Amino acid sequence: MRTFEIENEILKASVRAYGAELCSLVKKETGEQYLWSGDAKYWTGISPLLFPVVGNFRDKQYRYQGKTYTMKQHGFAREKEFSLVSRTENELWLAIEDDPETYSQYPFRFRLEAGYRLEGNTLQVMWKVKNREDRVMYFSIGGHPALLCPLTGEPDKTKAYLGFEDDDETLDYLMVDPATNRVGDKVHSFHLEDGMHRITPGMFDYDALMFDNYQIKVAYLAGPDRKPYVRLHTQAPVTAFWSPEKTDAPFVCFEPWYGVPDGVDFSGTLEERKWEQQAEPNGTFEAGYTLEIL
User: Fold this and answer.
1) What pTM, to 2 d.p., does this model score?
2) Which CATH class is domain 3-293?
3) pLDDT digits (tens, 9 = 90+) for 128-146
4) What's the CA gap between 142 and 279, in Å, rounded?
5) What is the rounded distance in angstroms from the CA atom of residue 77 to the CA atom of residue 74?
6) Domain boundaries in the chain?
């Protein structure tokens, strides 16, 4: 599998051409790996790029301009071979464009570029979505990096903490309703103590915890000593946290989403999907997120 490496004085990262997937992030001084390995025991993913849909459509189908299309969970970008656009010692850009296979699932002509840049102790993940149509293009896009939790020691994430740089003592989150397999409208409360919430057994047994309405700007993981070791910086409207349900998987995924899975009130029409993004005719949408290694 074709892989590209970038590095600076502090970090070294590896990215696969397949899916433009970040597959390694190492602190050079200690040799510590911050990402999950992709072992099929728990989950074969590491950091898939979600495009042009985040999550699932009901019955994996949606409608656009009166026609019904089928698309699997999280879209097709993660299963496409990206081409190299540019590469320097500390920065990499990869791209895909529409083809007959994508057009049969998603009726838009597009170019998607994924960039990775190392600056100091941070990895910046950058996306450019180019609309090649003379009409508005609807899409969602998101990240899904699986971060080791805890970073070192006994692989028991229930001894670690999920933290937020937020003054609130309580945050609100949504979950998938098992009865409908859609995002429910019940709001759950996430209580913080000194900005942290200990990861508990069963915390992820009902899929991802989804914090919407731009609640999350900075989130982090901390070890049993409550000392943060990795931070996520995001401007996304939705940030989700996930680990495989009913397992002791030693990682937690931080998922900045510009989109969200179908809600209970979703009609199935693409442009009416909550948090759906738009690229203007022949325009470019840009977004991303940053991982800070501490």
Assistant:
1) 0.96
2) mainly beta
3) 999 999 999 999 999 999 9
4) 15
5) 8
6) 3-293
